[in-house]
Amino acid sequence: MFRLCVIVCVFMICGTALFVGSAVADDQPGVKADAQPKAKVDAKPKIPDLVYVKISTSLGDMHIELNQLKAPITVKNFLDYTDDGFYNGLMFQRVRKGFMIQGGGVLPDYTARKTREPIKNEADNGLKNERGTIAMARTSVPNSATSQFFINLVDNGRTLNHKSPSPRGWGYCVFGKVIQGMDTLDKIGNTPVKKDPRADGSAPAAPITPVIINKVERVDPAQIKDVIAAARAAEAEEAKKIELAKKMQAEAGKLEMEKGIEYVKGKDVDVSKGTTSASGLWQVHVTEGTGELPKPTDKVKVHYTGWLTDGSKFDSSVDRGQPSSFGLNQVIKGWTEGVGTMKVGGKSFLVIPPDLAYGERGRPKIPGNSVLVFEIELLGINE
Could you tell me which of 350, 330, 178, 174 has the C-alpha nearest to residue 276? Predict the structure, then answer.
């Protein structure tokens, strides 16, 4: 089955160097004194940070920008296969609508071509599995990628990005992106598919009409300078949109924090005594405790009630009539910070910004990017 985690056969084949340097010998005895010295030439020309290839398919072409600066091992591997003509005649054997398209390993009859040695996983390079990016497919073993690659049809960062240096957290290495031909990408992504375990064992993913990779070849950037310029302009425009969205979100967040503080004020609390920490957490101590301060590694026992800024209650140990106990470093950041400033016997209100709560994802009864209001009473430590 050729799933995203593909099972690959490894064959040792020597790779060819991408760049061959030239060297100039030192001046030899007997050269005339007035002869001009030869200019020195670098033994190894500078490797460009960005390299370009064209993937020609039976449904159209795509120009790909490969990031050699961020993923040097992966890009060299891809270019070695490209220069050998390895990808020519293969197919995109796995197409998952709303996810990704995968190819670079098998012929239309699912016969696999022999591959080179697996390469190091460079998924920790900071590049994200966003729509239009190209990344390496692999098995469940992090350093097992060979020739197969996939192109993201949507943003898949939540499930595919690098999270930690562990088998489950390594993620999938992004090494470039489509700069022209997104229409071709979407055409492939929307091609009719059927179920075939050789393509995917869990869902229909095998194109009914095979999508052939006719050729993958390097492209001189000078030949596609207009394409590259258009890509840079699109990136700049997208960066402006992202910056504007951040500003709007920050303004909205500020208003929501103020709304949360107003809600606390409605509980007959003197909010003028509240403080905002460097992280953005707002807190006011209603009752000063007389016991100890908890450490981040302590287990605390509390009574609490939580609301959204519109007053909707989403949880309450008070209503359940049973205090809750948990490790202080095992909850949302706002709780770890806020409860960490309380003494046993104390009661506080917290207004927690989204990045210290549940962020964009939210949880049941809590929409994404919600500011949360809590009333918390610290009952004990390590009981």
Answer: 350
pLDDT attached to residue 46: 58
The set of catalytic residues is: 304, 314-315, 332, 358, 374
Q: Which of 317, 328, 326, 323 is nearest to 294 (CA)?
A: 328
CB atoms within 10 A of CB 273: 10
For 183-205, what is the mean pLDDT?
A: 96
Lowest-confidence pick of 44-53, 57-66, 220-229: 44-53
CA angle centred on 134, ends 131 and 137, rounded to 5°: 115
Element (H, E) at 343: none
CA dist., res. 227 & res. 213, Å (int): 21
Is the model's pTM score more than 0.85? no
Task: Tell me whether residue 270 is exposed, middle or buried, using C-beta atoms within 10 angstroms of its C-beta: 0 to 12, 13 to 18, 19 or more.
Answer: exposed
Structure token digits, residue 142: 């992090």
What is the rounded distance in angstroms from the CA atom of residue 65 to the CA atom of residue 134? 9
Domains of the chain, start order: 50-232 (2.40.100.10), 249-381 (3.10.50.40)
